[in-house]
Write a sequence for this structure.
């Protein structure tokens, strides 16, 4: 068989979709848009942000209740002291960063 | 209706349709689906060898296309982008099911050629059925490359973009695909193969 003949045969090998293919597809897309579940990234970011917020609150409460002035850290002989307020601020900034990531994600989706 | 002032030619221009889909026009998406669904299904069938499964995979592929249409930059033709999604989705489905080994082992679909029917009496659908049977007996890569080359009229550069195959693999698959297709058709139709042409 030459090229032309092969082409003729392969062109006959077109498989046709069922009659309701397009309708089913359009319905599916419509349904998915209606029952849109939050994405894993979105859920993770929200979850992580809430954890950060809760942890920061816990640390702050602990600091108020026990009247701690400074928290001492020691790592391989190197000692440093950090203000508890700074720790809370660091945790809160993590929350802020995560929330910004979430907003960016949502904004991209809207676009 | 959506067509409005658009001429029929412009209506079928992919870029125009894509813009309308991006604006939320589902009728434009319907037109895109109608335009490409049969060729896309043929490509998926080349890989999956099962029409129903290929149709499910095609549904998934078109949903992906709809979701990702905003990220389509137009650096390649829409058809090339679409076929790449269809091919990747089909190969992923194939990997999941590990069907390939099963297909080669079983001979359920192909009727034995005891007495081939008179080809003059076969209708167009029957011709199509026998050709598709022969195509289903080819390896997934061979059938896919054959269809991309002859059915979609794509060159090897475009086929490489869609499949990720190397140039040499495309040439080898084309050569083997042609020979194996002829062999399978000869097996199914015997001397009646001439009537196909």
């Amino acid at each position: 068989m030459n090229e032309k003949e092969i082409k003729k045969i392969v062109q006959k090998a077109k498989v046709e979709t069922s009659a309701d293919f397009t309708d089913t597809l359009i319905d599916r897309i419509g349904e998915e848009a209606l029952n849109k579940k939050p994405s894993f990234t979105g859920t993770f970011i929200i979850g992580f942000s809430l954890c950060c917020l809760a942890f920061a609150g816990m640390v702050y409460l602990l600091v108020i209740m026990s009247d701690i002035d400074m928290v001492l850290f020691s790592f391989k002989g190197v000692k440093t002291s950090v203000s508890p307020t700074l720790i809370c601020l660091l945790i809160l900034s993590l929350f802020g960063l995560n929330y910004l990531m979430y907003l960016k994600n949502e904004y991209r989706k809207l676009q | 209706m959506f067509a409005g002032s658009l001429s029929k030619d412009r209506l079928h221009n992919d870029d125009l349709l894509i813009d309308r889909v991006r604006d939320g026009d589902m009728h434009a998406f319907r037109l895109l689906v109608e335009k490409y669904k049969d060729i896309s299904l043929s490509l998926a069938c080349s890989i999956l060898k099962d029409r129903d499964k290929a149709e499910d995979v095609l549904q998934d592929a078109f949903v992906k296309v709809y979701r990702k249409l905003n990220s389509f930059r137009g650096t390649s033709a829409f058809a090339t982008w679409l076929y790449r999604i269809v091919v990747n989705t089909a190969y992923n489905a194939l990997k999941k099911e590990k069907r390939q080994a099963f297909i080669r082992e079983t001979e359920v679909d192909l009727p034995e050629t005891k007495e081939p029917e008179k080809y003059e009496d076969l209708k167009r659908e029957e011709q199509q059925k026998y050709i598709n049977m022969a195509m289903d007996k080819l390896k997934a890569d061979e059938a896919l490359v054959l269809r991309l080359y002859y059915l979609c009229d794509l060159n090897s550069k475009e086929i490489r973009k869609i499949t990720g195959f190397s140039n040499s693999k495309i040439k080898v698959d084309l050569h083997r695909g042609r020979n194996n297709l002829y062999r399978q058709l000869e097996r199914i139709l015997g001397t009646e193969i001439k009537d196909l042409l």
User: Anything to note?
Assistant: The CA atoms of residues 37 and 58 of chain B lie 8 Å apart. Residues 107-197 of chain B form a domain with the Arc Repressor Mutant, subunit A fold (CATH 1.10.10.10). The radius of gyration of chain B is 19 Å. Residues 1-8, 110-116 of chain B have pLDDT under 50 and may be disordered.
